[in-house]
Give the backbone structure.
Amino acid sequence: MWWQYILVFLGSLVFDIVPIPFPPAFTIMLFLQIKYDLDIWLVIVIGVMGSILGRYILTLYIPFIAGKIFKESKNEDVQFLGEKMKEKGWKSQMAIIAYSLLPLPTTPLFLAGGMAKIKPLYIIPAFFVGKFTSDTIVVKLGKYTSENTQKILGGIVSWETISSLFIGLLFLFFVLFIDWRSLIQKNKFQLNFKIWK
């Protein structure tokens, strides 16, 4: 049974080590937790550790790649942004926590941090708080929704199973179809249904 937890760690690591926005690591955590009926707290802790290691490695190697693929002026722009971020102190930390709580890819945060040559230890503690909190909510909600969907399909219908399924589907709808970038950057609420390739 231990090898499934290694899969959780490796899956989360791989999902968060790539320099392109990939599905959130909680998707592999939730999938493996449901598939192998793993202990939910072990999945969350091990998955978050894999994610943090992946993001740490990303911040270490991205400056080398950025130097080769972006113009020097673009790298200087991002480094300037990183310096401004460090000047903000605790406000930057709160922004990182808030950003990590949202259902947005955190890849841009770590790409910018890496390109700006911000030390990973400046970003990771705040990221850990947000990541652990958001992954716990999503994995637990996903597990609960999955269990109640199976009950409904198995013929056990109650107001609890129907309401939990509805809440889970509503949460999924919000994650998938709200244009979070527009909402955060422009304070403009928009739905985007063109998310499929």
Q: What stands out?
A: The mean pLDDT is 80. The two ends are 36 Å apart (CA to CA). The chain has nine helices and no strands. Residues 5 and 42 are 8 Å apart (CA to CA).
